Amino acid sequence: MEANKNAVVAQSGGPSPVINNSLRGILEACREFPNRFGRIYGGWHGIEGVLTEELLDLSAQKEEEIQLLRTTPAAGSIGTCRYKLKSSQREDFQRVIDVFRAHQVGYFFYIGGNDSMDTAAKVARLAQERGLNLVAVGVSKTIDNDVGDSEFKLIDHTPGYGSVARFWACNIQNANEENMGSSPSDPVLVIQVMGRKIGFIPAAARLADPKREMPLQIYMPESRVGLEELTDNVNDELNRRGRVIVILSEGFDVGDIGELKDAFGHTAFSSSIVTAQQVVVNHLNRVGLKAQGAARGQVAGTDQRAAIIYASAVDLEEAYKVGQNAVVIAVEHGSGYMSTILRRPGPIYNVDYDKVPLEVVANSERKFPQSWIAPNRIDVTDEFVRYARPLIGEDWVSVPVVNGLQRFARLERIFAEKRLPEYVPQAYRKVSATAP
Q: 13 phi and psi, to 5 degrees?
């Protein structure tokens, strides 16, 4: 790789509370190699910003704002997207190469999950085919913890998961306090959490009650429990304890909910006509409860992946180091890898930062281990608790506050000068052509 090549950092998919600390880790690590990196640009709204040649100049930002990225949640700093580069979209791929050439880009860091790693792998492969000297490295991120393998040999966990697990551990504690007081009228509380097909997020509810003192039932996608069996379980618990808290994965099968699909083909549950929680609550109230009162429900939205106040300090630190490690990988090992976390063996929690080939994790989908599902299928085992407990950390993260409000990073809209003709991404051309 020639000296002083520019770099592009971009994000894709759903964000997390700690994603910007990975961005900060990349920026600050690049500064440690002044003879390798020139200017650092941010793809404005992910790969879409590369296609439209909207490259935010991160090297021109104030140092104070870069430091504030540490406790700035979600993806408002440089934006994210759900634009999928499909193999058939040859013009899009060529456009990426053209933009990188035009701006002397020699490094591409893509922060995201399994679909994002697929994009990074395709860009790396195409650059090699087209003779562009480009180092492409993936930076792992997903709140679902579903990147990699179910044996945890490629990656132990992804940045983002620990913070969402902490969000639910704390919020289930709060919900239990409320339910204890209101149970004479609201004996059943149904709480819907994120988790399309993978149960790591709903499983984290158990961290609120590792001694199993709450009347808590957890319904993960892997539980394979239907609505009628759920009803029986709820009434059995009402007979025993007089109240019950139901943790329901958004992907719990209740039939047609009028769901929409995103560009990756994933169901966007928060954009659906009805929610699984509402169907379950309606059903329980319709068939009747074995207790006085009614079932009540609540649905958390994107707040569970955007609440910095619930972030795990462990997760925050690991997100930063995963970003740093991506730069080291780029410099020492070259293109085609994803920065990853591996847990050291033994009872004391400790990790190493490693790498895995992008091709291996592209479009991967880790399953929740069956051995971590309790025999009754509505709980998780102590082994899962031992795995997840260190990820949520100990103390609260200190968030800067000004005039009673959180102080987030605000990057200036300083963009690289465009050097190519305007371009409409291929997936949007039909929409543009039919728009009034």
A: 80, -170
Helix (H) or strand (E) holding 179: helix 161-182
Q: Are strands 267-268 and 260-261 parallel, antiparallel or unpaired?
A: antiparallel
**Crossing angle for the helix pair 227-241 and 276-287, nearest 10 degrees?**
60
Annotation says 144 is catalytic: yes
C-alpha distances in angstroms, 309 versus 166, 204, 320, 367? Answer: 10, 17, 17, 29
According to the model, what pLDDT value does residue 43 have?
A: 98
Segment (H or E) for 238? helix 227-241
pTM of the entire predicted model: 0.93
Buried b (16+ CB within 10 A) or exposed e, 165-183: bbbbbbbbeebbeebeeeb
Q: Which H or E element spans position 105?
A: strand 105-112
pLDDT digits (tens, 9 = 90+) for 53-72: 999 999 999 999 999 999 99
For residue 53, what are the CA distances in angstroms to 78, 164, 410, 425? Answer: 14, 33, 21, 11
CA–CA gap between residue 436 and residue 432 (Å, rounded): 9
> Which of 305, 313, 373 has its CA nearest to residue 349?
313
**Alpha carbon 167 to chain centroid distance?**
13
Q: Judging by DSSP bridges, how do beta strands 5-11 and 105-112 pair with one another?
A: parallel
Q: How far, in Å, CA of 252 to CA of 275, rounded?
A: 10
Which residues is 138 bridged to in the sheet?
A: 110, 338
Amino acid at 274: V
Q: Which one is catalytic: 92, 98, 115, 144? A: 144
